[in-house]
Amino acid sequence: MKARFLIPLGIFLVVVVFLAIGLTKDPRDVPSVLINEKAPEFVLPDLLDPEKQVRSADMRGRVWLLNVWGTWCPECWREHDFLKYLAKSEGVAIIGIDWRDERGEALAFLRNKGNPFLAVGFDPDSQAIMDWGVYGAPETFLIDKKGFIRWKHTGAITSQLWREELKALMQRLEAES
Amino acid sequence: MIPEIGHLALILALAMALAQGLFPLIGAHRGIPSWVAMAKPAAQAHLLFMLVAYGCLTYAFLVHDFSVAYVAHNSNTQLPTLYLISGVWGAHEGSLLFWALTLALWTGAVTFFSRSVPQVMVARVVGVMGLVSVGFLLFMLLTSNPFDRLFNPPAEGRDLNPLLQDPGLAIHPPMLYMGYVGFSVAFAFAIAAMLGGRLDAAWARWSRPWTSVAWVFLTLGIVLGSWWAYYELGWGGWWFWDPVENASFMPWIVGTALMHSLAVTEKRGAFKAWTVLLAIFAFSLSLLGTFLVRSGVLTSVHAFATDPARGVFILLFLGVVVGGSLLLYSWRAAQIKSSVKFQLVSRETGLLLNNVILVVTACSVLLGTLYPLMIDALGGGKISVGPPYFNSVFIPLTVPLALLVGVGALLRWKSDDAAALAVRLLPHLLISVVAGFGLPLIFAPSFSWGAVLGVFLATWVLFTTLQWLRERAGAGRGLWQALRSTPRGGWGMVFGHLGIAVFVLGVALTSIYSTEKDLRLEPGENYSLGGYDFLFEGVDVTQGPNFTANRGRVVISRDGAHVATLHPEKRVYAVQRMPMTEAGIDAGLFRDLFVALGEPLGEEGAWAVRIYHKPFVRWIWLGGLFMSLGGLLAASDRRYFKLARKARLTADQAAAGATA
Amino acid sequence: MKARHKRFGFIAAGLVGLGLAAWLVLNALDNNLSYFFSPTEVVENKAPADHVFRLGGLVEGGSLQRGQELTIRFVVSDGANRVNVAYTGILPDLFAEGQGVIAQGRMGEDGVFIADEVLAKHDENYMPPEVAEALDKAHNQATEATN
């Protein structure tokens, strides 16, 4: 007779298990078909100097991050300081793509907040971005030495993400030849 | 400086909440009077610090202190003052602060208004609420501090989400939170009763008015939310079965069941274990709602900040609070012996049915809300459960509820005579059937079984509820005298149930007879819908305080007579650069006319325009308002105050006796 | 014995009611689920041909065709594959080229996805770039709106 009073607890525990599994899955994480595929090539005018160009091909042989951002994107502001930390203290090579932005605003943004990028491609008309299947910003891709996309993250890069996921993965990729 | 004071106040509030949670509970358990006596001062100090913290954040909004990250992210110097104040609870951190403040307010209210309740009981209730507060304050301080500073404060803030810049939505969350959190009082009473080992009718009597007040807030919150979605989202819908909406609706359903079940427990001493379980569930669903909204496990149009760390924390918290309560329940409920007997035809059975139907409904909503999550967790891919699921489950479940609602109130406690009842109800049945077929046939543009059912049910609820008032007039009393002698609680029941009649009528007629049309209209072009002529006069540009808008002009007439001129807008907010549709609505008791602008089409000034004719849509919210009024009347019944006064007198006498 | 009979009656009625409710719920779930498919899965014929489903992806830049009439055509892409979509009606506020979208509907015979509902979702942390359009709009207010 007593067992029936445990039923609500049992049901609740089942719900909690599902919620816990649900937490590990990101509903925004639309499965990307690009993981472990060859990264699309791009050639974009340099944000800082329109005469120059930023090419993905120049990064061949290195492990690098491609970060898609824009001054209109609030979460990119929040992410910016950590990107600076990654570039300065962890020595991560980050190429930025400034997407759908105004050159003046983007330059002012980098002047005020600092520039974590090796180079920034300027893509106001989504020329390059389309090939990468980017849904919004910020979005970050990890590309290995052979030019394959190995990892992708939608949303801001956080120190937790770096500690728990990205750092180890980058070290592994650096070890690959 | 001010934000630091706010931060400090939060920390002090946490310390107070800890004291409020630990000392009274341990004191009550061990029988240490001085520890028990700490409950009230600790709770009141906790409330004071929460008010200070909340005041500091509001101040930071008012003076545009963009060095506070939360302020910079959610306001702007051009933002009107009203939205500076409502911006405080507009996003994640601030809404948590508001949640915690609300909890402190309810706790404070318990310490002020529970003089009729034994001190040990109050101490336990306050203690349980203190522990819940500790969880929320820790969550805030560890993962979502609203007072976090920015190192490089921007000169201008990022502005409040334009969707939230609306008077309806400014007061929707506070109402909802007052309701959500208000269920914590019933929850705390139930837990306290279990801790004390006294699961009798007393705790039910004490928690009844609190539950009713919380329920009123929740009802108003849901009504406001539905009304806001109707005119702000530009879709003309009033309920979307979105996970976040469901998160507020499930506690409401269970809370409704709880109010009725508490009545049985108080009056008859029956359903004791069940009522405790409902009290736990109502608050658990409030917490679950918070989890669903805050953790981002479900995608929703409302999607708030999502951060796995926050999700883990809330899930842990949920596990401790609900798991712990249910464990306590499984231990204590097994000790309850119920010896109350009642017949098959009795008010107890009626209320039992009410409870069963409501709980099954809540479960089906819960299942539909969590189903995508479960399938995803089991590796079944991403799915969504659409509104048709909820409609096709919800409607069949609520029909028996509407059939029973008036009848249940007519039944006597313990046992009643089914045959005599049938005789009393027969005329009402006939009237309802005639009205159900007659009214739609005469007035409606087309025949529909749904409308027949809707009108029948509404009439049936109306007449069976009025029958209750009429029967009070029997037994030698005149009608007027009977009405005057009806206690507030009785009137509360009447208005609550009439609210159902109004609501059912509104839902049925709106969903069946609404007409809508997406159109391409050129300036000067005319379209006729639901007997009204809509003349599109074109679109021009206007400037608002922090947005620019394309403002349309639509002149509506009926049989040549001018009815209204509507100005639907398509706004673009300057800072967030977000487009927003602001519908033009001509509201009326019997119909709404609704125009929303889509996009410009072609070069000649033509626009895509959406037009609605929605009969009786206001009745949906009117029904909700009736229900709230009912709840308010029930909560203010003199009985509770009389009890309180009597208890105070005895307490005073006892005190006098002790000192003499 | 009478009390026991009554109790049995209560339980039986309860079970029948619960059974009905369960049937109702399962039936409704069965009929009203819609599965989510990406353009790649659609191209690989994994999506149902005769059932409503949700197509999610990115509205390809430059693919939006808005004629004189209300029917709108655009392409949903996931970077690897593309699906043509047609929708008649008014698009949600946050719909824009180059932005995430979910369309609910079914495949037409000519390989065009006929949407009866288009959802563009708002998420404060991960803001879709409706900016450019809005910017254009804000700049061109006085002359003519460009989209």
UniProtKB/TrEMBL annotation, chain A:
It is found in: Cell inner membrane. GO terms for cellular component: outer membrane-bounded periplasmic space; plasma membrane. CDD domains: TlpA_like_DsbE (cd03010). It is a single-pass membrane protein. It comes from the Bacteria. Signal peptide: none annotated. PROSITE patterns: THIOREDOXIN_2. Its main location: membrane. Keywords: Cytochrome c-type biogenesis, Disulfide bond, Redox-active center. GO terms for molecular function: disulfide oxidoreductase activity. GO terms for biological process: cytochrome complex assembly. Residues 33-171 form the Thioredoxin domain. InterPro entries: Periplasmic_diS_OxRdtase_DsbE, Redoxin, Thioredoxin-like_sf, Thioredoxin_domain, Thioredoxin_ResA/DsbE_sf. Belongs to the thioredoxin family. DsbE subfamily. This is DsbE family thiol:disulfide interchange protein. The lineage of its organism: Bacteria, Pseudomonadati, Pseudomonadota, Gammaproteobacteria, Chromatiales.
TrEMBL record, chain B:
GO terms for biological process: cytochrome complex assembly. It is found in: Cell inner membrane. Residues 315-638 form the Cytochrome c-type biogenesis protein CcmF C-terminal domain. One of its GO terms (molecular function) is heme binding. Keywords: Cell inner membrane, Cell membrane, Cytochrome c-type biogenesis, Membrane, Transmembrane, Transmembrane helix. Residues 89-295 form the Cytochrome c assembly protein domain. Belongs to the CcmF/CycK/Ccl1/NrfE/CcsA family. GO terms for cellular component: plasma membrane. Required for the biogenesis of c-type cytochromes. Possible subunit of a heme lyase. This is C-type cytochrome biogenesis protein CcmF. Its main location: membrane. It is a multi-pass membrane protein. Pfam families: CcmF_C (PF16327), Cytochrom_C_asm (PF01578). The chain crosses the membrane at residues 6-26, 47-72, 96-114, 121-142, 177-197, 209-229, 249-266, 273-292, 312-331, 352-373, 393-413, 425-443, 449-469, 490-513, 616-636. It comes from Candidatus Sedimenticola endophacoides.
TrEMBL record, chain C:
Keywords: Cell inner membrane, Cell membrane, Cytochrome c-type biogenesis, Heme, Iron, Membrane, Metal-binding, Signal-anchor, Transmembrane, Transmembrane helix. Residues 1-7 are cytoplasmic. It is found in: Cell inner membrane; Cell membrane. One of its GO terms (cellular component) is plasma membrane. It is a single-pass type II membrane protein. InterPro entries: CcmE, CcmE-like_sf, NA-bd_OB-fold. Pfam families: CcmE. Its main location: membrane. Heme binds at H122, Y126. Gene3D superfamilies: Nucleic acid-binding proteins. GO terms for biological process: cytochrome complex assembly; protein-heme linkage. Residues 29-147 are extracellular. GO terms for molecular function: heme binding; metal ion binding. Heme chaperone required for the biogenesis of c-type cytochromes. Transiently binds heme delivered by CcmC and transfers the heme to apo-cytochromes in a process facilitated by CcmF and CcmH. Belongs to the CcmE/CycJ family. This is Cytochrome c-type biogenesis protein CcmE. It comes from Candidatus Sedimenticola endophacoides.
